[in-house]
Every structure is written in C-alpha cells, then in structure tokens.
Amino acid sequence: NRVFPVSNQSESIITCLRKKVAENGVIELFNCPINKITKNQNQSFSVSTKERIYEFDKLVIATGSSKKTWQLIENLGHKIVPSLPSLFTFNCK
Question: Do the Cβ atoms of 31 and 39 come closer than 8 Å?
Fold first, then answer.
C-alpha cells in the first residue's frame, strides 16, 4: 500500500506532517538556524540558537541540504548518508 498526495506536491507532505506535529504538542523550530547541539548526561538535548538555548527530551531534525547541520549531527555520533532530492511515496503497513 502506498500513500501519495493528490496534489503531486511535496509541500502537501510537509504541511500534513507539520499539522500533526502541532496537534501533538511538539515544539517546532522552523527556519531557526542551530549553532550547537549537546547531548546531556541525563540523555536530554540542549539546542543553541542565536536567540536562546532550548532543552528537549527528544529531537527530530530535518536538515535539508545544510552541511552545517549535518556536521552538528555527526558531532553527536551519527553517520550522514548523502541525500537526493525527490518526491517520494510512503510505504504504509
């Protein structure tokens, strides 16, 4: 089974995901450049921006093609797999 937006626009997927995020009380920092991400001893995260430092229990990061953000994630011990632009389908089970 596959789900694909009727609009054929990737923006429809983004809009849907952002709506669900807001409905579930998740804090979204959108178009907010990050200077530093630190994993704390209690397994929480400190996210530093130009304006302030945010504290989170969990993070979901959408980097786009930002090499700077990729480096921040690599500094946390993650491996970055090069991405390719696409409009894709979601496999649903």
Answer: no
**Does pTM surpass 0.90?**
no
Question: Which pair of structure tokens corresponds to residue 85?
Answer: 């632009």
Q: Give the closest residue to 76 by CA, choosing from 64, 91, 61.
A: 61
CA-angle at 56, arms to 77 and 71, nearest 5°: 30
- Closest by alpha carbon to 78, among 90, 60, 55, 91? 60
> What is the band of 14 on the pLDDT scale with cuts at 50, 70, 90?
confident
20-33: average pLDDT = 88
What value, to the nearest 5°, has the Cα angle with vertex 71 and ends 18 and 38? 75
Q: In whole angstroms, what is the distance from residue 68 CA to residue 75 CA?
A: 11
pLDDT in the model for residue 87: 60
